[in-house]
Design brief:
Radius of gyration: 15 Å
Order of helices and strands: HHHHHH
Strand content: under 5%
Number of helices: 6
Number of strands: 0
CATH class: Mainly Alpha
Mean pLDDT: 94
Number of domains: 1
CATH topology: Non-ribosomal Peptide Synthetase Peptidyl Carrier Protein, Chain A
Distance between the termini: 16 Å
Amino acid sequence: MERNEIFEVVQQALVDAIGVDEDEVVGEATLLGDLGAESLDLLDVLFRIERKLGFKVTINDITLMITGGIPDEEFGTEEGYLSDVGLAQLKKSLPQIDVDSLRKFEAERVLTLFTVDNLVSLVEIRKGEMASVTH
């Protein structure tokens, strides 16, 4: 399955779960910001992707992709903002972001930075993991 086919599955899941138009679902659109998804919508999107592709992608997978497994107390500062460690991880996990603009960004809001392209990449990774398990 090619990336553009995965994009189409993700796009359709977003259209069906959130009720946005197909042309709104572009790679750089953030799920929780630009597309207006809420937490429950995100669960619905992931469930639809699972039904279509036959493997699970979870909120935990998204969080792990974003944070790289860095503990909350290291990812954010005591004041609740992204730490240097958190910013360095975001530079790797969400390469589209200008991390310098996030110096005073609240660590707990990091999921709002997750885009359609990020979700497509995560689905690609999970698909690859599933393929290696079955072979």
